[in-house]
Write a structure and sequence with these properties.
This protein is mainly alpha-helical and 177 residues long. It has one domain. 77% of the residues lie in helices and 0% in strands. The protein has seven helices and no strands. Helix 1 runs antiparallel to helix 2 and helix 1 runs parallel beside helix 4.
Length: 177
């Protein structure tokens, strides 16, 4: 049975996007420190890669054991795009309508965590002060333009991850001579 790649990409993109929203809003509701920690950890924990690998193998299995490179890339990158759009909309709503001070509060907690980490690693007070001074006050805005820019830049990295997923899940059709 041949499966429609675009439909699967949309489905798994929506699943990953909703999961990202649950993590974002759930951690926000648990407090600012939890929110900052989860957002930081979420950037490095490859839960979406794991979901797309499992889904990609299932997709290949449903396509009689064959998933060409182009179709695998279409599936994986479309999933990332849909998840990114859902996450961008949720981020914009959270930071601009639900908690308008969240950007400033998040920056303050991040600076405190950075300072504590640098002190723990034995950095000098001068180095710590330099690092704190580098924080750009203009980054205290989470308007539509900044969310859109962040989404666009994130999609570049997401394309690289989609390529790696594609290399793992693809399986070209073999032709007998």
């Amino acid at each position: 049975m041949k499966v429609k790649i675009v439909n699967e990409g949309l489905k798994y993109g929506a699943i990953c996007g909703i999961l990202a929203l649950l993590l974002m809003f759930g951690s926000w509701s648990m407090g600012l420190s939890t929110f900052v920690s989860v957002q930081f950890i979420g950037a490095f924990v490859p839960y979406m890669i794991a979901i797309l690998l499992i889904a990609g193998f299932q997709l290949r299995k449903q396509n009689e054991g064959v998933l060409p490179f182009s179709e695998a890339l279409k599936f994986s990158f479309l999933s990332y795009v849909i998840a990114a759009i859902i996450t961008a909309i949720g981020t914009y709503i959270l930071f601009n309508f639900i908690d308008k001070d969240l950007t400033v509060k998040t920056l303050q907690v991040s600076l405190e965590k950075t300072r504590a980490f640098m002190e723990k690693m034995g950095a000098s007070q001068e180095d710590i002060q330099k690092a704190m001074a580098k924080q750009d006050p203009s980054k205290q805005d989470t308007g539509f333009g900044r969310v859109l820019l962040g989404t666009g830049l994130g999609l570049i990295w997401d394309f690289v991850k989609a390529l790696l997923i594609t290399l793992v899940i693809r399986k070209e059709e073999k032709f007998d001579m």
